[in-house]
């Protein structure tokens, strides 16, 4: 009986500590470690050295145990992660700036801002010096009915950028997707649609005048084979919709950088060639165009080797360039090998921007797997971001730091 009551007493003292558990890839032991020493369900605490133990998925215990095992460094910037974890203590926006870039940033979305664990990391402007609203400045969000503008969602992101002293990228004025049906299904004359584009871009850009570093004025104008997307804009106005939108944006905010933003232009091919030719044409016609956004939605192991050269090729036309929507997805489940390859892929992508003076910054298309768009679009794929769904930094984080020269 006495023995039993002692056990209960001991249990009561220990309970607060026993209950806390590390998430997958979180630290769970090592000399000097005072945090949880057990892992959440489905994971085991793997010892790598006297200094470092880490929660890994139960099924991966054997393969991970042969990985290198450095202790996490408290002052370094970056060392080799043992498996699924980052060891870098560097702050990415600080690193980007030390490399001469304007920012390292991230997309974010309004629905994410009530997640306090998320905002605790997002709000650190040594980590993120720039944000892009993933949805709330798009046409369907800002002009759902003709002439009726709603800026509440966009304003929330703009205000966040302001209060955190972060740059803001505006995304976007004209895109074939996320259009309200009054635009996409309307049958307009060329004059009518010209006026609709001018009114939309002008009102949107004017509303955020002075707050936006750069606008994606035109988003994704080309098909992958290099032909123009046959959306309502092209079908009604031909290629002229691009200059209509750019001119309206310039008039609305002469100080904002005006971009065309596109994907699958990160390697030589028909689509990149079409966009390059468009840049040349617009420049020869003195249409206001300041930048080209390389979205960089990549796949692990398939980052184009020509990325740096493509950034330079576009920059040679007198525009700045930026990596605007970076993520690198994999087929799930993630494995230590895939995470290490992803680290290399992030490193190479960042290094490409680092090496090109005209590449002003890098934006990840959200920093955590918790809010990545990828699984909703590519079934069975994900884990594309530098932080996992529990906000633990992945090896990819270290890859970014190394890519910025750290
Ligand atoms: O707002 C509705 C909500 O009312 C509804 O309940 C819910 C049900 O699914 O859907 C919500 O809309 C979703 C919206 O995101 C806001 O969360 C849409 O279904 C969903 O399709 C939409 O996805 C966005 C996607 O663009 C649309 O194409 C992603 O969040 C956004 O990250 C993504 O971003 C694009 C860039 O703008 C351009 N480049 C590619 C990139 C990735 O697709």
From TrEMBL:
Pfam families attached to this UniProt entry: CBM_1 (PF00734), Glyco_hydro_10 (PF00331)
GO terms classed as biological process: xylan catabolic process
Region (Disordered): 62-90
Skewed-composition ranges (Low complexity): 74-90
UniProt keyword Signal, yes or no: yes
The keyword NADP is annotated on this UniProt entry: no
Name by which UniProt lists this protein: Beta-xylanase
